[in-house]
Design goal:
Length: 248
């Protein structure tokens, strides 16, 4: 175990733990955009910068991927951190000028106007890669990073509707800036150029996912889907147990 201080508070952590995790566990707020516990190691937005002092020497590090190796002092909101974070946010604002979340962070940290840089009109994506990671974890791999330089973006192969997409909206749910557009009227769902039919619970009628999504789950589990929502599935299990043990 290692003893460090965060903003003057003594904190205990294991060697190798990432600073962001230690700080959050101890109640310290560090803003993030590309961080998600299910998809670690992105470290591309740089918003989670903190200042670390070791043996009298100070440095700025990316807290989500900085492992604690020895006792140190950590400052999550020092003047140096605020200045560097404001610059990062200014650049992100130019990359994603339509993002309300980045707008709010820019206001909170006093980010300067960066309109002298190239601005991508109507864009919300910051290329954090979380959506690609979530899609990969689903086992579909329907989207990826394509092109290079200022043209780089997240898309399906050749910008065509992907046969691998199941319309699960994992990419939409994990996106920090609401950059992925979709439509859902309760009967059909449109995302990444495809339209999916939505399945409903055969007991209560609530939407439970797309047909393709349920088929993927069935294929993975090797069991036929019952097309029941979590609540109705739970009730069915309870009723089965009650019948089995003669509970009235």
């Amino acid at each position: 175990m290692i003893e460090i201080t965060i903003n003057g508070k003594t904190c205990i952590c294991e060697k190798g733990e990432y600073l962001l995790d230690v700080a959050r566990r101890n109640g310290f707020y560090i803003p993030t955009l590309c961080h998600h516990p299910a998809i670690p190691g992105q470290a591309c937005c740089r918003v989670c910068l903190v200042e670390v002092v070791e043996k009298g020497r100070s440095k700025i590090v990316v807290s989500c991927v900085y492992p604690v190796e020895r006792p140190c002092e950590v400052y999550t909101d020092s003047e140096r951190v605020k200045e560097d974070r404001a610059v990062v946010l200014m650049l992100l604002k130019e990359r994603a000028p339509e993002s309300d979340l980045i707008d709010a962070l820019c206001s909170a940290y006093g980010a300067a106007d960066g309109s002298r840089f190239i601005q991508i009109d109507g864009e919300k994506c910051i290329m954090c890669g979380l959506c690609v990671g979530a899609c990969a974890k689903m086992g579909t791999g329907a989207i990826s990073t394509v092109l290079r330089g200022t043209s780089k973006k997240i898309s399906t192969p050749y910008d065509e509707p992907s046969k691998d997409c199941v319309g699960c909206l994992s990419c939409v749910s994990i996106c920090p800036t609401d950059a992925i557009s979709y439509k859902d009227d309760g009967q059909t769902r449109e995302v990444w150029g495809r339209t999916f039919e939505i399945a409903h619970c055969r007991k209560c009628g609530v939407p439970i996912g797309t047909k393709e999504e349920l088929e993927l789950v069935a294929k993975r589990t090797g069991e036929e889907t019952e097309e029941l929502c979590p609540e109705c599935r739970k009730k069915k299990m309870t009723d089965t147990m009650a019948h089995t043990y003669g509970i009235v």
